[in-house]
Structure formats: structure tokens, C-alpha cells
């Protein structure tokens, strides 16, 4: 089966490392070196490639920026490849090229497959490519939340499916409870709002405004207020157009136009142009007659009734009272009335809504209790298998009598503190259920199981973490594992067993270990030495592959602090031979 492999990294101006290339083995690679040589920078570099936080303090003193480049061979159908291609990245001979640059001022840039990408994308790819474990991860394993996550990850769909159902019901319950709380706590405010709306609607209903009525009344008031002047003007205009019967000598526009038309009609047959003008004069005569008729009708129909004017002004005053309160115009007042009626219906229905929400909340509480219990049952079943698997792994890590158990319990809370009845008890419920998960370790027979935070030494904690990761490798494999001093606090036979177990893990995954123990390094397929020299002004670190005599010398240094000690050399050769034999 083809799997992803981190082939190499190039590190420039990062911490104590000036410029180094780290060539990694597909199997088990051990990174060794003296304290302060920069071994941890290997872990830090990979963390940066996978979207870790950029700290400008990591940039080498005097350098403008630090650069980490990595090459990861990946199968073409890997999820990481599909996600990278969506971002526009391209593979280079079946490998993803990743680059991360950190400036001394704190700016950070990321590139993937030749394309600039957000740093967050590298973090998304990390979940599918590499599991990084360092001292901080060991401390993280002490937190109950991390222990619950570890159990859920191991359980897979057995927990993921009920957890998804539980989470959906939990979110809905939170939303219902929030709406119900708002409705009940704001009851007085809503009652006041409803009273104001009713008053306004009653006031509008009493006036009964019509759409556009204010505009119509304004025009009518203007006309009634100037009725005499309008009538006089219309009469004078009519006389000018149609003549005044009381003045036989008078000349009107209609008579003049008619005379002009008759003059042209006498000769129109001789010139089409003049005939066209005669036609237009005829049209003008007809139009003048129409206008004169309408002016006569306008003058006759014009109402100069002062009582009507008073009624119009009174109606306008009533409408003005409404527009001062509810809108700039009658149309706006009517719109406010429509919206307020809908809002009042909503407010009046709050009591019904409160009843509906209360019923839904109670039903969801019962449903959530059942889902929480199902989730607890699934975790309990998985916990037994998980604990047994980790216990078996510890037996392979020189802890043959250790026993791991997992306690699953719920924290009881007062009902008025947000508790919900689950199994007859009010318990605290969260988005992930009601369970608190805690890993317990009994390191030897007769010892009571205690939380690993209290019952495990540094070496035991390292081995528990390694055992947990090995168990994960069997159920939820990750292509590459990087351990930073997972052997901390371990020595002697236990260190040999840790090395042997890492070698076994490397049969199905790539394993990179930063270690100070020769017993662990001896089991590696490849050993890298991080070494530094000091020229008096600048410290430079390099990384080189150790083979043959060089590897024996480094193991001798790790054993006795003396590369040329014959005893140490013999012991180093014995370790290498034993490691080769056991693998």
C-alpha cells in the first residue's frame, strides 16, 4: 500500500540552524545530537510546514527571515492532494512541495505546490499527513478534554454517529431555550409595546385615511381657496377664444382662425404646401373650440363653497395628526399600520409561542437525555477496548504489570444551574455530551488506579502517550509520526522497549523521533546527527546522515559522553546488533 512519506526538509536561518537539509527515511529515523545543537528545531520546522504559529523570535539573529521547505511524497488519491489541488497547487513528480517563510518583523507566508496559500490550509493538510507529539502534547494528554477526544477518535463511528445526533439536538435545545428565555424575561416590555401599537392602530382606524388622500385634499384646498380668481380667469379665457355674446363687435380667436382658414381654402388647390397649412388651421380651430368648451364647463362646475373648504381643512388637520406620529405621508401611515398590525399579531401570539417552545424544550430535554445516554454507552464500550489495547501496548514498553482503565462519569449540577435530568440525575451537558473522561493508571499490582496526571512519572507518561499513539495507528493511521523526546524520563530496559515499539510502528508508518537515548536511536533505520560548530561569532548547525563508524561513534557519545571509549563502542555495537536482530 502506497503511503505518504516526508522525504526531506531544508531549514535556513531558523534558531541555531544556518542552513541544513534533513533527509528522512520512509521507516524509522532518529534525530540525535548534543543538547542545544538544534534537534528540536527539526520538530519546530515541521510544525511550521504544517501551519504552526510563526514566532519571529525563531528567526536566526542577523537574518531577515527564516525559511523551511519540505517535500512530501503522497499518493495521487490522498485527501491532502485533492485539497491541495483545489487550492491550485501542483504535484512535483508525485510530491507536494511546501514552503513557509517567517520574517524578522513577524510576517508569515506559505506556499504549496508553487502556489501562495493561506497558512490555515497547511493546518488542514496536517490532519491527513503528520501526527506531531512533543513535550507539550504529553501535558495536553493530562487534560480531560484531550482524553475524551482521544477516546472518541479511537471509537470512530461508534461514537461519532450518536455524537452527531446529540450535537444537533443540543444546538436546537440551546436555540429554543434562548428564544424562550427572551420571551419570558421581556414580557413586560412586549406588553408595553403591544399597548402602544394598539393605541396607534385605533387612532388610525378612527380617521380611516385613504391612500393618497392627503395629496388629493391639498389640491382641493388650493383650488377652493382661489375659486373666485380661477373662475374669473376661466371666463376671460373663454371669451378670448369663443367671444362674448354681450359684445357683438368683439373679435375672438376662433373667429380669426376661421377667417384665416377660409382665405387659404380659396386657393389651396394651386399649392399642396398651402393646402397643408390650411389643414393645420382647421385642426387649430377644432382644438380652440374644445378648449373653449372645457373652460366654460370648468367655470360652471367650480365650487366656491366655503363650507366645503372648511371641511377639507378639517380633514387635512386630522391627517396631519397622523403623519406627525406615524409617517411623512398618508401612504407611510398606512404602511406603518400594516406592519404594526402584523407585529401586534406576533406579540399577541407570544403566549401561544411560549407554550409551544416550552413543550418543545421539554421534548428536546427528554430526547437529549436519551441521546446522551446512548453516547455514554458507546464511550463506555469503546473505553474498555481502548484501555485494554493501551494496557497491552504498555506490556511491550517494559510496563508488564501496568493497567490502564478509563473512568467515565458525569458532573452533577443543581437544576437551577442549567442541569438536565439524565438517568434520574441533573448533570452538566455540553456540546460533546455529559461525559468526563479520565485515563487512570495502576503502574504495578496492588497500586490503586490514579489519574495519569498524578499517578504517572515522566517516563511512564511518555510510554502511555506512545502506547496511545500506537493504538491509534491500528484504528486511525497517520502516514507520518514525529515524536520529540517521547523517551523523556525513560532509561535502561524501558528505553530498549520504547525503541523496539517505535521500530514496530515504523513498519506501517513513517516515524521520526528526536531522542537523547542510544537504546532508542539504535533501532532506527536512519540516524541523523544535528551538530554545531562555533567560530567565535556565529553558530551554525548542520544535519548529516550517520552510517557505519560514524553511527557507532555517535551512539558511544550518547552512552558515555566519549566517542572513542572502547567500552562505549562495544556497547554501541552491541545495541545496533541487538536492534537489527529484534527487528
TrEMBL record:
Signal peptide: none annotated. InterPro entries: DNA_recomb/repair_RecN, P-loop_NTPase, RecF/RecN/SMC_N. Keywords: ATP-binding, DNA damage, DNA repair, Nucleotide-binding. Pfam families: SMC_N (PF02463). Residues 18-536 form the RecF/RecN/SMC N-terminal domain. May be involved in recombinational repair of damaged DNA. Belongs to the RecN family. NCBIfam families: recN. This is DNA repair protein RecN.
Amino acid at each position: 500500500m502506497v503511503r505518504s512519506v516526508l522525504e526531506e526538509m531544508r531549514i535556513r536561518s531558523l534558531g541555531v540552524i544556518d542552513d541544513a537539509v534533513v533527509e528522512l527515511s520512509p521507516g524509522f529515523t532518529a534525530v540525535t545530537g548534543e543538547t542545544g545543537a538544534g534537534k528540536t528545531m527539526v520538530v519546530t520546522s515541521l510544525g511550521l510546514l504544517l501551519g504552526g504559529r510563526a514566532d519571529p523570535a525563531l528567526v536566526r539573529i542577523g537574518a531577515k527571515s527564516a525559511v523551511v521547505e519540505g517535500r512530501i511524497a503522497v499518493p495521487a488519491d490522498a485527501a491532502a492532494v485533492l485539497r491541495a489541488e483545489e487550492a491550485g497547487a501542483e504535484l512535483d513528480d508525485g510530491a507536494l512541495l511546501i514552503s513557509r517563510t517567517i520574517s524578522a518583523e513577524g510576517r508569515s507566508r506559505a506556499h504549496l505546490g508553487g502556489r501562495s496559500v493561506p497558512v490555515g490550509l497547511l493546518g488542514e493538510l496536517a490532519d491527513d499527513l503528520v501526527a506531531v507529539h512533543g513535550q507539550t502534547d504529553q501535558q495536553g494528554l493530562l487534560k480531560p478534554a484531550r482524553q475524551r477526544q482521544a477516546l472518541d477518535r479511537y471509537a470512530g463511528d461508534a461514537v461519532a454517529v450518536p455524537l452527531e445526533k446529540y450535537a444537533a439536538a443540543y444546538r436546537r435545545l440551546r436555540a429554543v431555550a434562548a428564544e424562550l428565555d427572551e420571551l419570558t424575561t421581556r414580557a413586560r416590555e412586549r406588553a408595553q409595546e403591544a399597548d402602544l401599537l394598539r393605541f396607534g392602530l385605533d387612532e388610525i382606524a378612527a380617521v380611516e385615511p385613504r391612500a393618497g388622500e392627503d395629496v388629493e385634499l391639498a389640491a382641493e384646498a388650493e383650488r377652493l381657496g382661489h375659486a373666485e380668481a380661477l373662475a374669473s380667469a376661466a371666463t376671460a379665457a373663454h371669451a378670448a377664444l369663443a367671444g362674448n355674446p354681450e359684445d357683438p363687435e368683439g373679435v375672438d380667436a376662433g373667429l380669426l382662425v376661421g377667417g384665416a382658414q377660409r382665405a387659404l381654402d380659396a386657393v389651396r388647390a394651386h399649392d399642396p404646401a398651402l393646402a397643408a397649412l390650411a389643414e393645420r388651421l382647421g385642426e387649430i380651430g377644432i382644438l380652440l373650440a374644445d378648449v373653449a368648451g372645457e373652460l366654460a364647463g370648468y367655470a360652471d362646475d367650480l365650487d366656491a363653497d366655503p363650507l366645503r373648504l372648511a371641511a377639507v381643512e378639517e380633514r387635512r388637520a386630522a391627517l396631519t395628526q397622523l403623519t406627525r406620529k406615524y409617517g411623512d405621508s398618508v401612504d407611510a401611515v398606512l404602511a406603518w399600520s400594516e406592519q404594526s398590525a402584523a407585529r401586534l399579531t406576533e406579540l399577541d401570539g407570544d403566549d401561544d409561542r411560549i407554550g409551544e417552545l416550552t413543550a418543545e424544550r421539554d421534548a428536546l430535554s427528554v430526547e437529549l437525555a436519551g441521546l446522551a445516554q446512548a453516547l455514554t454507552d458507546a464511550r463506555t464500550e469503546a473505553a474498555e477496548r481502548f484501555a485494554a489495547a493501551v494496557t497491552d501496548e504498555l506490556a511491550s514498553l517494559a510496563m508488564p504489570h501496568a493497567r490502564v482503565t478509563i473512568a467515565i462519569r458525569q458532573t452533577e449540577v443543581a437544576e437551577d444551574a442549567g442541569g438536565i435530568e439524565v438517568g434520574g440525575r441533573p448533570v452538566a451537558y455540553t456540546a460533546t455530551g455529559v461525559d468526563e473522561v479520565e485515563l487512570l493508571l495502576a503502574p504495578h499490582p496492588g497500586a490503586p488506579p490514579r489519574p495519569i496526571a498524578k499517578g504517572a512519572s515522566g517516563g511512564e507518561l511518555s510510554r502511555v502517550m506512545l502506547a496511545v499513539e500506537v493504538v491509534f495507528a491500528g484504528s486511525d493511521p497517520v502516514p507520518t509520526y514525529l515524536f520529540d523526546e517521547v523517551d523523556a524520563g525513560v532509561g535502561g530496559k524501558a528505553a530498549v522497549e520504547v525503541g523496539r515499539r517505535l521500530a514496530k510502528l515504523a513498519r506501517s508508518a513513517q516515524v521520526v523521533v528526536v531522542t537523547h537515548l542510544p537504546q532508542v536511536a539504535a533501532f532506527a533505520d536512519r540516524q541523523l546527527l544535528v551538530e554545531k560548530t562555533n567560530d567565535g561569532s556565529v553558530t551554525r548547525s548542520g544535519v548529516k546522515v550517520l552510517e557505519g563508524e560514524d553511527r557507532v561513534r555517535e551512539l558511544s557519545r550518547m552512552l558515555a559522553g566519549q566517542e572513542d571509549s572502547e567500552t562505549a563502542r562495544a556497547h554501541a555495537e552491541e545495541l545496533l546488533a541487538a536492534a537489527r536482530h529484534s527487528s
